[in-house]
Amino acid sequence: MESTPKHQQLLHLLLLTTLIYLSSAISIQSSFPQEALPTKSGYLTINSTSGSSIFYTFYEAQNPRTPIYDTPIVIWLQGGPGCSSMLGNFYELGPFRVSFSLRHNVEHLTLVRNSGSWNRIFGVLFIDNPIGTGFSIAGSPDEVPRNQHDVAKHLFIAVREFIGLEKSFENRPIYATGESYAGKYVPAFGYYTLKKNARLAKSRRLNLAGVGIGNGLTDPEIQVGTHALNAYYSGLINGKQKMELEKLQEEAIRLTRNGNWSEATSARLRVLGTLSNMTGLATLYDFRRLKPYEDDLVGKFLSSVEIKRALKAKESISFEVCSDLVGNALNDDVMKSVRYMVEFLVKNTKVLLYQGQCDLRDGVVSAEVWMKKMKWEGIGKFLEAERNVWSVNDELAGYVQKWENLTHVVVMNAGHLVPTDQAVNSQAMIEDWVLEKGLFATGQVTQKPSHIGTCSIG
Ligand SMILES: *[C@@H]1O[C@H](CO)[C@@H](O)[C@H](O)[C@H]1NC(C)=O
Ligand SMILES: *[C@@H]1O[C@H](CO)[C@@H](O)[C@H](O)[C@H]1NC(C)=O
Ligand SMILES: *[C@@H]1O[C@H](CO)[C@@H](O)[C@H](O)[C@H]1NC(C)=O
Ligand SMILES: *[C@@H]1O[C@H](CO)[C@@H](O)[C@H](O)[C@H]1NC(C)=O
């Protein structure tokens, strides 16, 4: 794609090049309007010998509030392990999201503007992490990371290289965020970065200013023990089923404590599979949903050569939303805790933990249980802090609890993919947390009077 002449590339875009290909009965049309193109995209080299490299898309702030050299950059990492951040880009928090319609027996996949995009006032960098994921390239299967240290090492190299692309990127504050299994990646990257920074000359450091995790898996041994109680008190299983599920949870915990990692990973999947079978829900990612999230739309959209070309992704890569190669490489990592990394981060930078309220995999209860156990001088104060009612545009959006460096947000009417379900509220959350406004301000104890009367509880 580097060799495509510019005018030719432009032509493709101006014509809103439409690809039509036939699937069994109906055809799909995908188009990529020029205004939806990333500001920058392509590859960051991890190993020039093996050819391993990380794919990224970057969207500059639409209406920055500060000079660009001061404007924050938010990094987004998808979970999995092995799922592409193009999911975040085109289904959750990017400026345009894939939308599906059926007209005259033709499936249309179009990009629709997202009013809750996270790049309204910040730059947003989506990274296909680790190598082997999405459009990223693993030089050899052996090079795919098998632990969080190696994940973080590669991410640090990639982000350093990205920052080096423009002089104006150099000192912009960086906020590392992500979802689900990124509950491992985000702490690992933050921890590695702060430790590494301490040994580097100022000009080689990364200006990490905070980390944020949505519906994360961070401390699996504790988190796997919460499903039965949570489902029981949500009215989804009865007492007998609760006991059955608890037995399976105990097995997962026992295997984790024994360091029998691969067995422990399977045991957790048995817990989730059993819960899924008992409840008959369409998805554990959101107990309200009658159909699973339609993330496969992103896979369909990105399978087109024209779209890959527009994104400067390698055309020969057959895009998968989630990679089995990477999932398998990190199989033994799944049940390993990174809570100690969050404990280090909360002492040295700011930490946001948020969960969609309706997630049964890595939801509110699952997060609160390990947060309570954090070894941090501020944890007592945090636990005593008010849980404030949080409103956006005069409507109830959820709850915010904060003390010093730690902020916890419960997002109402959202499942595992918070930005998909509550785009505008998730945008308000990330902006106010970064800028420390409203309930996210330091020293904020109670809700300001101007908000009272707008909350619809009771
Ligand atoms: C880069 O790739 C080469 C060839 O696969 C390998 O021998 C080398 O160890 C890799 N370097 C790093 C730093 O991973
Ligand atoms: C791990 O689990 C397997 C299967 O239950 C068992 O055969 C093996 O002995 C266990 N290993 C350890 C180290 O506990
Ligand atoms: C859930 O049900 C399916 C279909 O009956 C079955 O194949 C699967 O093994 C069950 N999963 C668990 C963990 O029991
Ligand atoms: C919060 O983070 C700052 C660094 O940004 C640190 O100096 C401070 O000690 C931390 N506070 C607590 C209570 O850990």
Give the secondary structure arrangement, pairings included.
Blueprint: H1 6-14, E1 19-22, E2 27-30, E3 40-47, E4 52-59, E5 73-77, H2 86-92, E6 96-103, E7 106-113, E8 123-127, H3 148-163, E9 174-179, H4 182-197, E10 208-214, H5 220-223, H6 227-233, H7 239-257, H8 261-279, H9 296-301, H10 305-311, H11 324-329, H12 339-348, E11 350-356, H13 364-372, H14 379-384, E12 387-392, E13 395-403, E14 406-411, H15 418-421, H16 423-435
Parallel strand pairs: 2-7, 5-8, 5-9, 9-10, 10-11, 11-14
Antiparallel strand pairs: 1-2, 3-4, 4-8, 6-7, 12-13, 13-14
One 2-acetamido-2-deoxy-beta-D-glucopyranose (NAG) binds near residues 258 and 263.
How would you characterize the overall build of this protein?
It is a single chain. With about 450 residues, the protein is an alpha/beta fold. The chain folds into 2 domains: about 35-220 and about 290-450, Rossmann fold (3-Layer(aba) Sandwich), CATH 3.40.50; about 225-280. It is about 35% helix and about 20% strand. The protein is built from 16 helices and 14 strands. The protein has helices at about 5-15, 85-90, 150-165, 180-195, 220-225, 225-235, 240-255, 260-280, 295-300, 305-310, 325-330, 340-350, 365-370, 380-385, 420, 425-435; strands at about 20, 25-30, 40-45, 50-60, 75, 95-105, 105-115, 125, 175-180, 210-215, 350-355, 385-390, 395-405, 405-410. It has a 10-stranded mixed β-sheet, sandwiched between helices. The chain has a 4-stranded mixed β-sheet with strand order 1-2-7-6. Helix 3 (about 150-165) packs across helix 4 (about 180-195) and helix 4 (about 180-195) crosses helix 12 (about 340-350). The longest helix is centred in the middle third of the chain and has 19 residues, at about 240-255. The chain binds 2-acetamido-2-deoxy-beta-D-glucopyranose (NAG) (4 copies). One 2-acetamido-2-deoxy-beta-D-glucopyranose binds near residues 270, 273, 274 and 277.
